[in-house]
Every structure is written in C-alpha cells, then in structure tokens.
Amino acid sequence: MLLVPDKRFLHIASINAGFLAREHVKGLVLDIDYTLADRSTPLPDSEIQTFITALKQADIRLYVLSNNHHNRVSRFARALQLPYRANGLKPFPLAFSLAVKAMNLRKEEVVAVGDQIYTDVLGGHLAGLRVWMVSPYGGGGHSPFYHLRRMLEKPFIHARAPEDGQAHR
Q: What ranges do the domains of the chain cover?
C-alpha cells in the first residue's frame, strides 16, 4: 500500500550499516526535518554526524531530499558533506528519482527514509522505492497542523511495528 511504510523505526540511528547490508541497501534518500533533526535545529547534532559518518565509512551512498527552503537544506547538508535537493516537491516522485540517479544506483538498492506518511512514504513509493519511516526526531512539531497531520497518519504508521523495539530518546 502506498501510504504504509515498508519498515518503521523509533530512531534513525537504529538504521546501521549491518542492517543495510542484510537488506541489500546501498543508498539512502534522507529527509531532514524531524528525520535527521528537529525543525528548529540549523545544523546536525553530534549523534547525527556520527550516524552519517558510520554510513559513509560503510560505503552507503546518501542524499538529502527536503521540501524545506534552499538556505535551510544547503546549510544542513553541507555540514554533513552530502548532496542535496531543496524544495523537493514531495510527494511528487521526480526528486526521489533524481536522487537515485545522482547516487548512480538502481531503485532496488535505495531506500527513502523520512518521518511523514503524506510526503516521504507516499513520494518514495510513487518513485518505486522502499520507504522506511522513523519517529520524529526531537519529538515532532508543536503546531496544530502538525498534530492534525499526525492524527491522520496514525493508522498508516501503526500498520508497521517498529523494527528496533525500544526508544533511543
């Protein structure tokens, strides 16, 4: 189903190189806001830097894809030395397909990772990718719109049990 993630994790750091190797994954398309950082955090924290470094050392190709504006995305992605696309227009599949092409991998080798059903999960699936969902980094947003969207996403989120089984935060 387009709106159900293929796997779900309570924390992004649960996705490690060993797990990716077992899943035959060579590349990840990563969202920023609430996937790699709280929306108000301008730069990656040390935990995310360590996570990204470990994946790079394991030769996992990484690409940042965000609907956020260029200044936010470029600053964050450059701090991690990752290629990126801002204003990605998710859930439309084009930016996901361009990310796969930029990583020079086949769709079967790439997983999209994000925290939202209606942008990350839907967009990744429309592009023909596997999609893994993570719980919102930093606990998520506080706006009424965020809470409404989360309420509408709940049935799809809970259609998958978390792979990691325990919260890291």
A: 7-157
